[in-house]
Amino acid sequence: MESTVTNYTTFVTETLARSTKASSSPSIDQNILRQCLGLASSFLVTDSTTNHESGISTWFTGFSRLVDIMVALHARNELDLETVNAASKACSECWTAAGSWRGLEECRARVRDIASKLKKLLDPNGRSYKGEPVYAP
Predict the structure, then answer these.
(1) I need a labelling partner for 8 at 20 to 30 A (CA). Which of 50, 52, 69, 127 fits?
(2) What contacts 31, CB < 8 A, 6 or more positions away?
(3) pLDDT for 23-81, tens place per residue?
(4) What torsion, rounded to 10 degrees, do the Cα atoms 75, 10, 98, 73 define?
């Protein structure tokens, strides 16, 4: 039986491209962005188990692209609190998955890298975004 290889980078790129083409607005649909973020921990597990050579890399690149989009939205003052919360939750879930699955321990450093990018978007207290509390596990 042949297993299907997953690739979070491809999924993110294709999903966002499809949603942008389907929309008359030039802006990113943050509902789609949040759905992609919500799948980060699942892709961490599937990318790394279905593609032992580069699965961790495809997961990290996909997750990083989503956060890069968030940084751009923040710079344009378009980033929604819900999206920040979704990213925070995704980091928490990926941290847990990386600590729970054998062989994924190294991914915790990558989650830390992503979380540090997100932290730069927060208010100076590090716990809120535009005065509203951010999801924290």
Answers:
(1) 127
(2) none
(3) 777 788 999 999 999 999 999 999 999 998 999 999 999 999 999 999 999 999 999 99
(4) 10
Quote the CA–CA distance of 76 and 72 in Å, as a whole number: 6
Residue written as token pair 């994924």: 104
Q: What is the DSSP string of 59-74?
A: HHHHHHHHHHHHHHHH
Alpha helices in the chain (DSSP H): 8-22, 30-38, 40-50, 55-75, 81-100, 107-119
Kindly state the DSSP code that residue 104 receives in the 8-state scheme: -
Helices 107-119/81-100 angle, 10° precision: 160
Its pTM stands at 0.93
